[in-house]
Specification:
With 422 residues, the chain is α/β, with parallel strands linked by helices. The protein has two domains: 167 residues, FAD/NAD(P)-binding domain (3-Layer(bba) Sandwich), CATH 3.50.50; 150 residues, no CATH class. 29% of the residues lie in helices and 21% in strands. The strands form six sheets. It has a seven-stranded mixed beta sheet with strand order 8-7-18-19-20-17-21. The chain is globular and about 65 Å long. The two termini are 17 Å apart. The structure holds flavin-adenine dinucleotide (FAD). The site of flavin-adenine dinucleotide has 42 residues, from α1, β17 and α12. The site of flavin-adenine dinucleotide (FAD) has 42 residues, from α1, β17 and α12.
Length: 422
């Protein structure tokens, strides 16, 4: 490997975007990726269920404002066809109950927005979320563990408001991992190349690992914050306290996914793309949500988020499959066991994956400024962090990661930022 202008650590969305930006600018770039595949937390597996299944990122959110929308060929607007079945103690909620549920959702967001101006600097979402109403715990369950992969008490109120996502929400027929793998195909990526040490004492940077030693003018590190917090990369000199704190203040929650294939013809009275969920009594109940038969395929997609996902993570795919079976039994009784193959699940394992250590980031209460702090260049611009955790608005998404990597690369390649000459 000859020394490139730019070294990118990680071939997820941020790393791929950074490398493509460097190439577009005519600069030499090298990507070092610990895993044997690109995409990071966007990974499409096609073998187990006989169809593409995204084990990580599922939707392109906020499609009109998403840099990946124009790059995706096979996008489908899920919102246009999505229907919901919400169970209350085993029976489907009626139209009036669903209207109350929608109203509780709107009230949740109104209340949080109104609290923004006067809330304490370290306010958590939970401090201002409505409580006690018939649907309040269910809304909290969705907004916390399901959508943000963490409880409302763990998340900063202002960061939560700043990173709210809108539709349209697109599903990709070939998966988001498939999209990213295609976008990485022509890039100079070295796989199986974990960076263990990164020296940025100047004038450039030097990365070391099982691949040897590679120098460059500048580096962009896109490893997830939980991987950085675990000390997977030793920085020399050590990172400034402000950067270390930012890493610590942006932990990853956990969202686990499972794919369950139909055993026969029974489709459980659910239309393709329909959502299945249940009302909960407490935000932290281990309730699962499901998307039925995407693209008319013969599998259900299940989600379990937050502390319940961490608790089950050590039991692997079988534990999640058992839990999914129990959840579906609430809705369908014995019919669920006959309709689905629980013995051959496809399940994610992001919590135990050493190159992820979780799903996506949230800011701890009082630490909304951590995203900007992490994105701040170091060493006169020769060391930068990028990735979903660095984006002030699209954090926790593929879009945020992509945009963050793109911006970091353009900034890193500005001559005034790179303080040495070839
Ligand atoms: C279950 C789940 C569901 C999700 N749903 C959605 C969704 O619907 N929509 C959405 O937009 N987003 C979703 N996300 C979030 C989205 O996947 C991430 O925000 C995004 O993919 C992060 O990209 P990244 O480049 O910042 O990080 P990553 O994708 O994690 O990329 C970082 C890369 O760095 C590599 N790496 C780590 N350490 C080292 C090292 N020491 N040396 C070399 N390489 C290293 C990793 O292997 C990885 O490939 C979901 C995530 C999960 C897990």
């Amino acid at each position: 490997m000859s020394d490139p202008d730019l070294l990118v650590i990680g071939a997820g969305a941020a790393g791929i975007a950074a490398a493509r930006a460097a190439r577009a600018a005519g600069r030499a770039v090298r990507v070092l990726e610990a895993r044997g595949r690109p995409g990071g937390r966007a990974w499409t597996e096609s073998a187990t269920l006989g169809a593409p299944f995204d084990l990580g990122a599922t939707w392109l959110h906020q499609a009109g404002d998403n840099p990946l929308t124009p790059l995706a060929r096979d996008a489908f607007d899920h919102d246009a066809v999505r229907s919901h079945r919400c169970l209350i103690g085993g029976r489907p909620a009626g139209a009036a109950e669903m209207a109350e549920y929608d109203a509780a959702y709107a009230a949740f967001h109104d209340r949080l927005r109104a609290a923004r101006a006067t809330a304490a600097p370290d306010a958590a979402v939970a401090d201002h979320a409505p409580r006690g109403g018939f649907w309040d715990a269910t809304v909290a369950h969705w907004e916390g563990p399901v959508i943000c992969a963490a409880p409302l008490a763990a998340m900063d109120l202002r960061d939560f408001l700043d990173t709210q996502l809108a539709g349209p929400n697109l599903l990709l027929r070939d998966g988001i991992g498939g999209l990213l793998a295609g976008l990485a195909a022509e890039l100079p990526v070295t796989y199986g190349a974990p960076v263990e040490r990164l020296s940025w004492s100047g004038p450039g940077v030097v990365a070391e690992g099982p691949f040897g030693r590679i120098a460059a003018r500048a580096a962009i590190v896109t490893a997830p914050t939980a991987v950085l917090a675990a000390g997977a990369i030793r920085f020399d000199p050590p990172l400034p306290a402000e950067t270390e704190e930012a890493i610590h203040d942006l932990p990853l929650g956990l969202l686990s996914k499972i794919g369950l294939r139909a055993a026969g013809e029974d489709r459980l009275d659910l239309a393709p793309f329909a959502g299945l969920e249940r009302r909960v009594e407490a935000e932290d109940e281990a309730a699962m949500t499901f998307i039925a038969w995407p693209f008319g395929r013969d599998h259900l997609m299940g989600f379990l988020g937050g502390e319940a996902a961490w608790a089950l993570a050590r039991e692997g795919a079988a534990g999640l499959a058992d839990h999914a079976r129990a959840e579906l039994r609430r809705a369908y009784g014995g019919r669920a066991a006959a309709a689905l193959r629980f013995d051959r699940p496809l399940a994610s394992d992001w919590g135990r994956d050493p190159w992820a250590r979780g799903a996506y980031s949230h800011a701890r209460p009082g630490r909304a400024a951590a995203r900007a702090a992490l994105a701040r260049p170091l060493g006169g611009g020769r060391l930068r962090f990028a990735g979903e955790a660095c984006h002030p608005r699209l954090a926790a998404t593929v879009a945020g990661a992509w945009e963050s990597g793109h911006i970091a690369a353009w900034a890193a390649l500005q001559p005034e930022d790179v303080r040495f000459k070839p």
